[in-house]
Amino acid sequence: MTRASDRDPSFRFEYDPATIRFGTDCVDALETELAAQGLERALVVCGSTVGTTPAVIEPVTRGLGDRLAGVFDETTPKKRLATAVDGRERLRDDDGDVLVSLGGGSSLDVARVISVLAASDRSARDVADEVVETGTITVPDEGLLPIVSIPTTLAGADLSTVAGVTAGPDSGLDEEIGGGISDPELMPTAAFYDPELVATTPDPVLAGSAMNGFDKGVETLYTANATPVTDATASDGLETLADGLRAFGDGSRDLETLERILEGTVLVQYGISRPGETTLSIVHAFGHGLTRTGEVQQGAAHGIVVPHVLEYCFEQDGVDARAGALADALGVGDATDQAAAVVEAVTEIRDGLGLPSRLRDVDGPEPDEFAAVADAILNDAFMANAPPGLEPTVAEIDGILERAW
């Protein structure tokens, strides 16, 4: 594995991940896992499509057996605070003691917010006002309900401790305001990775989420707080994920391919979200800036900008963007120009997934908005993890957006 010689070799790594269950039909063991953790009544949190798709919901409810308390199938990609408030009421009505998120990252985010709300008696308006004032929601010191995650996409949010939330008119505000929460106790207590469930997700959704998960591996290698532990998991995960995504792009949809993609997704997110820190970096800051000002899906936004962001990082003098480590992980370590080979490999994977390659082709910001978007990107919290030595300006971020246009 290629490591940068000028990085500080000392590090601190604190990580308390979920119990991982992996493999076809692993959700059959849901009841067993809950019993082992002393949990008795599970409220499944999902979207309406998942909740009414027998191939997805039935294996989960069957796996929960007598520990199924109910199904709350009202989540949406907007991750609305009002939805979480409704979920809290459903949780109380069903006397649940554990939340089981099923579906994409938005359902997991809503489940996390439900857990936070359930630990207090605050009103939706009170919490919405806090989101407006601080951009976050206070996480109580005790009383959080445990969460079990069952992803059906590949975004890789399951081994993390953060969640997004949107407060809007349905919470008493005049306009929509985005925010987020973070706390080590929001790490799921268990995560079930079942390729049979992932196989039920439409290809366009899988492709977009896969790009988001893939970029977690890319960013974890060059982040300012990389460690040998995250280097190992991210490198192996990227190699596995890239192989699987190339096969997916070539048309393979068999379970072996999905298992390989899912295995890579698990590995690239292992260790990225730790108490007080994350390895997510500049590409995810771009994702935030673009999706908060438009309707573009985050994975699609990542796919569009990541080649240009990588080129920019590799071109900056004195910046350690780990081109060698990335090249090794992506199978192009023998290239004469490793930086160019990395950009080409990432672009080919993006194109193989059928994702858009230009900002003008998605419902995102227009060029006259780029300066404001660039300012938001530069002030995003994830920019603190930019590759060592990288000090971008608003004009340089604007230039990346222009090239992506």
TrEMBL record:
The keyword Ribosomal protein does not apply. Residues 17-195 form the Alcohol dehydrogenase iron-type/glycerol dehydrogenase GldA domain. InterPro entries: ADH_Fe/GldA, ADH_Fe_C, Alcohol_dehydrogenase_Fe. Gene3D superfamilies: 3.40.50.1970, Dehydroquinate synthase-like - alpha domain. Residues 209-404 form the Fe-containing alcohol dehydrogenase-like C-terminal domain. GO terms for molecular function: alcohol dehydrogenase (NAD+) activity; metal ion binding. Transmembrane segments: none annotated. Keywords: Oxidoreductase. SUPFAM superfamilies: Dehydroquinate synthase-like (SSF56796). This is Alcohol dehydrogenase.
